[in-house]
């Protein structure tokens, strides 16, 4: 009988392993948007995001960001440390796009004077609302010290990724991070991929991320493949 996952999310399944504090993550091809209202699949997305996430976690680890990633173990699977996930989604933005462009009335593509960090309450029923440190405190989602750490890591990760991607002719517009606690330490968790970031070609402005799926722009799989190729030189 096939092993039952501990948890099944929109894009991944999580399985226990023989090691108490290690989990196996399986990357699916399923894609959702607008809090699950739009559903579809992107061919090979699981394979591509598993590789792209592996690349980014290696890069961040080498640059001093503590994270959950242990190793990629197959095309669609990776081994990670088990985390108690903090129910806060941390978004970093360099250029106005998506929900920020809508909220503050800026056109997409307008550069922010400096990067900003936003926090969202990770709660599907509520549609992941935007919150601040005061909401986090009354909802007891994280301690004040943890919130400081999240912000500090978020800005540092942005610097590392932005600098790296610029050389690959990719503009990092914005991205979402999730963190969790392992043995009392805050670690970066989840994934970093075209599902969770906005990547634009620096020269043409072409979108190379999940907005191609969200906005029905076509060539979704090719965009994910292009990101993997620019990062690793691998032709998927
Ligand atoms: O939709 P919005 O503009 O707020 O998204 C900001 C960034 O966070 C985008 O890169 C998007 O891909 C990512 N995001 C995510 N998961 C969510 C919400 C946003 O990966 N639930």
UniProtKB/TrEMBL annotation:
PANTHER family: MULTIFUNCTIONAL PROTEIN ADE2 (PTHR43599), SI:DKEY-6E2.2 (PTHR43599:SF3). Keywords: ATP-binding, Ligase, Nucleotide-binding, Purine biosynthesis. Belongs to the SAICAR synthetase family. One of its GO terms (biological process) is cobalamin biosynthetic process. This is Phosphoribosylaminoimidazole-succinocarboxamide synthase. Its EC number is 6.3.2.6. It catalyses: 5-amino-1-(5-phospho-D-ribosyl)imidazole-4-carboxylate + L-aspartate + ATP = (2S)-2-[5-amino-1-(5-phospho-beta-D-ribosyl)imidazole-4-carboxamido]succinate + ADP + phosphate + 2 H(+). It is an enzyme of class 6 (ligase). GO terms for molecular function: ATP binding; phosphoribosylaminoimidazolesuccinocarboxamide synthase activity. Gene3D superfamilies: ATP-grasp fold, B domain, Phosphorylase Kinase, domain 1. Pathway: Purine metabolism; IMP biosynthesis via de novo pathway; 5-amino-1-(5-phospho-D-ribosyl)imidazole-4-carboxamide from 5-amino-1-(5-phospho-D-ribosyl)imidazole-4-carboxylate: step 1/2. Residues 6-228 form the SAICAR synthetase/ADE2 N-terminal domain.
């Amino acid at each position: 009988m096939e092993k039952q996952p501990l948890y099944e999310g929109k894009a991944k399944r999580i399985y226990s392993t023989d090691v108490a504090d290690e989990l196996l993550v399986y990357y699916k091809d399923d894609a959702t948007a607008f809090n699950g209202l739009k559903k579809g699949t992107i061919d090979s997305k699981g394979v591509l995001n598993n590789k792209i996430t592996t690349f980014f976690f290696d890069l961040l680890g080498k640059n001093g960001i503590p994270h959950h990633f242990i190793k990629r173990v197959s095309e669609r699977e990776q081994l990670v440390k088990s985390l108690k996930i903090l129910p806060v989604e941390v978004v970093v933005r360099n250029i106005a796009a998506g929900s920020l462009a809508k909220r503050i009335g800026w056109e997409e593509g307008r550069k922010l004077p400096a990067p900003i960090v936003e926090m969202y309450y990770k709660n599907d029923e509520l549609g992941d609302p935007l919150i601040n440190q005061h909401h986090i405190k009354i909802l007891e989602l994280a301690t004040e010290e943890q919130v400081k750490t999240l912000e500090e890591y978020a800005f540092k990760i942005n610097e590392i990724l932005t600098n790296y991607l610029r050389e690959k002719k990719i503009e990092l517009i914005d991205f979402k991070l999730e963190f969790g606690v392992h043995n009392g330490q805050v670690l970066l968790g989840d994934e970093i991929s075209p599902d969770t970031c906005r990547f634009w070609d620096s020269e043409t402005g072409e979108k190379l991320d999940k907005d191609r799926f969200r906005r029905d722009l076509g060539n979704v799989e090719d965009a994910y493949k292009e990101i993997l190729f620019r990062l690793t030189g691998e032709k998927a």
